[in-house]
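Worked example 2:
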Amino acid sequence: MSKIGNAFKNGKAFIGFLTAGDPSLEDTLRFMKAMERGGADLIELGIPFSDPIAEGIVIQEADLRALEHNTSVDDAFHVVEEFRKESDLPVVFMGYVNPIFNYGYDRFFHKCADIGVDGVIVPDVPFEERNEFADVARTYGIDVISMIAPTSHDRIKQIARVGEGFLYVISSLGVTGTRSEITTDIREITSLAHEVTDVPCAVGFGINTPEQAEEMAAQADGIIVGSAIVKIIARYGSEAAEPVYEYVKTMKQAAARAGK
């Protein structure tokens, strides 16, 4: 089992997302520590990008705030490097292929291995083209997280068979963002995936209330929450550590109830 798999060992996993450099790198580090204190089992750290096509307005604005301070790929690495001085909690990068390509695949994944980034999610690369960088990532022991959409249908098992770390099950069509209702049959998707793999399934896109957290966690191995956390950061800025902690704690407890 990879280190990412450890996040799922003790029941339903809570995965929290935030954008590196929003509103500052120092704040990002404090927020990561607050998320861990609140019970997060894994942290997904966004590398800010000017054209984040999978993101809704909340995370788009977070990317813009980070880019206004010239937050770079190296800055994202620096945050993880500082976090690793105190924590071995699994961390994955959420990043678009353009910054990774420009950084250089070998250089990027080598550095991931050096400083303790455990995996990457690259949402703008189709599954069929993932080997462009996945082979390099594998050389350095970095998991490439595959995404399964509600429209994947016949491809679910194909994607699941080569899954690494965890499978990111997208709850709804469209971009990231909080939703009042999630109608996708998540249990059907996770059941199909688990017919061919033991890699855990975590569901994201839209989860923002404890009720949704419990409902979605009951149908998967874990939940991913991003926009709701980023909204808290947008509201409180540098003072967001405690509100983030309280929110993560509440959502983790809700997800845990689904495992009982």
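Residues 87 and 101 are 28 Å apart (CA to CA). The two ends are 23 Å apart (CA to CA).
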